[in-house]
Design a protein that fits this description.
Quinone Oxidoreductase, Chain A, domain 1; alpha/beta; 31% helix; binds NADP nicotinamide-adenine-dinucleotide phosphate; 7-stranded mixed beta sheet; 328 residues
Length: 328
Amino acid sequence: MRAVVADRLGDPSVLQVKEVPTPEPGPGDVVVRVGAAGVNFPDILSVAGTYQHKQEVPFIPGIEGAGTIHAVGNDVRGWKPGDKVIFGVRPGAFAEYARVTRPDAMMRLPEGWSEIEGAGYRVAARTAYHSLVHRAGTRKGDVVLVHGASGGVGLSAVQLAKHLGARVIATGGDDTRLDIVKRHAGADDLVNYRTTDFVAAVKELTGGKGADVIYDPVGGEVLEKSVRAAAYGARLLIVGFTSGGPSKIMSNHVLIKGLTILGVRAGETIARIAPELGLDYVKVLPRLAAQGVMRPHISHRFPMEGVADAFRALIDRQVVGKAVIEMI
Ligand SMILES: NC(=O)c1ccc[n+]([C@@H]2O[C@H](COP(=O)([O-])OP(=O)(O)OC[C@H]3O[C@@H](n4cnc5c(N)ncnc54)[C@H](OP(=O)(O)O)[C@@H]3O)[C@@H](O)[C@H]2O)c1
């Protein structure tokens, strides 16, 4: 089969399309004929060698995709060849075939969705759901401030927060992409944090109160300033660091405002301490998808040979929602 391979770690130019052996299903596995795979910021970090989960080279990147089940191993219940699915792998999705070792965590491709849309659902939806529901307990009437709202995990968070009955203030660095956040995801208010002081904007929009929940995949100065945009008793979700690195949060502000700081590890928390919450992913995420909540917006599509361009589109902040690699 053809696959995108990282023979060494580095910038996106290290990625090459190569012929590699097609995977066979072991007991309990399924092999999926991949239609499309979603591109995520962690893919860039994995190939660069800076992600928390280190990969041995050579490896095939890509952590999510959608396609058709090709082969089913012994002991697999509930799935058969021909089923259309959304799947996760750690890693291996940027290939014509992917071996999925946790078929119990797959979901059926929702009715009416293309594989391209399905490829962009799982990671962003899980991250938004774990953050806003499991961690922050977002409620109707909360003001939710979503940073990096035009990115993958950001756009899903806007959609889910609206579904939960929150008022959403969405930030981003580009007016045109922010407009899509309003049209596709229904954000109530938009703030361009490159041209506007978002702390002042949030205060003004909330009558001086601030945001009840802050969802931050950007980090750096954005997270540091967010403490000042928080309402008393707010929940601050630390989701990622696309701006380049961690931040220093002033502990006196955390105390004075009675803030709760929540680290988000969408996969890890469930693996380590709360397996029962994993059932939500299997049951709730397909239901939300069927209702059209968090339906992905795909702004960029690339063939396998264009994988480096796909990575650069994320690095250059061009993507709205998701970029995908198409295998077929
Ligand atoms: N905690 C978890 O469980 C979990 C799960 C999945 C992903 N993540 C993390 O969440 C973050 C976002 O992932 P994603 O796949 O959604 O990424 P993405 O689609 O590229 O979106 C990230 C957004 O960050 C903003 N941004 C601000 N400064 C940036 C910079 N210097 N370079 C690039 N983007 C910048 C961009 O919006 P503007 O241009 O509008 O500012 C961009 O749209 C990553 O750090 C990822 O590792 C965490």
